[in-house]
# Entry
Amino acid sequence: MTSSSAADGRVLFDVDPDRRIATVTLNDPGRRNSYDAPMRDALARYLDDAAQDDDITVVLLRGADGVFSTGADMNNAYGWYGKDDGDRPRKTRPSQRRRLTVDRKTFGFYHEFLGYPKVTVGEISGYALGGGFEMALMTDISVIARDTRIGMPATRFLGPALGSLHMFFHRLGPVLARRLLLTGDIVEAASVEHLGVFTETCEPGAVTARARYWAEKAAKMPADGVVIAKEAFRLVEQSQAYQGEEVASYLFHAFGTNLQFGPGEFNFVQTRAEHGTKEAFRLRDEHFHVPDPGGSATGVH
# Structure
């Protein structure tokens, strides 16, 4: 087995040539494997390396220490849009043209992952939120722990036009997609197990072994056949559900991150600037909490 890691060690890459499996691990558990632009770029480079390796059939995507990913790192919301002078993080709102340029590149990553030429297997546990939730849904075969918390909580401070909308509606169905996007609810995977959103939902202690099982099973398929099939799958999905998806995703995300907030609406960026990131998340959850009078047992928060 060969292994390597990005310069700062936040993304790990291992190859098992005998089994034709590459494993990519998000490795920043102190931040629940949330990622910034350099970390996402390292992930993209490893995925490109695996895509170009004829001896690899399957890529297993996972997170270190039992957490898949909580998505984009919100400690610097505008940091994704570059620096003011090459050193300091941007402190003012980026222009709409800057948003569109950056968001087009960002959604290019998700688009490429969705149409990736190898079989992708997701080992999903702990948290799969935001971009982490998107990647979990994009994997071809997904194994998730029943207690994994999933959702798009960033819609609570940036609006519901976030993420790969076409994919949410296609993979989750229009009812669940609208519910998660319009409320920002975080739910446990067990509450949607009956919908068949993921390939397999299992107990937390079994996730690693079950994901490895599916990876080894898929790796026995003919590699050329897999590549042809993946392109066919992509064509079918685009012809049925994804027409215009690239434009819809990054365009509405760029517009949606330039909101004006009215009285009584929660402004995460302003709150974070005034109180810090940790307190901003607490105040966000406090703002959006509505007691459920029905005592629903769906695992919703």
About this structure: The beta strands are 2-5, 11-16, 21-26, 58-63, 119-124, 127-129, 141-145, 149-151, 186-188, 200-202. The mean pLDDT is 87.
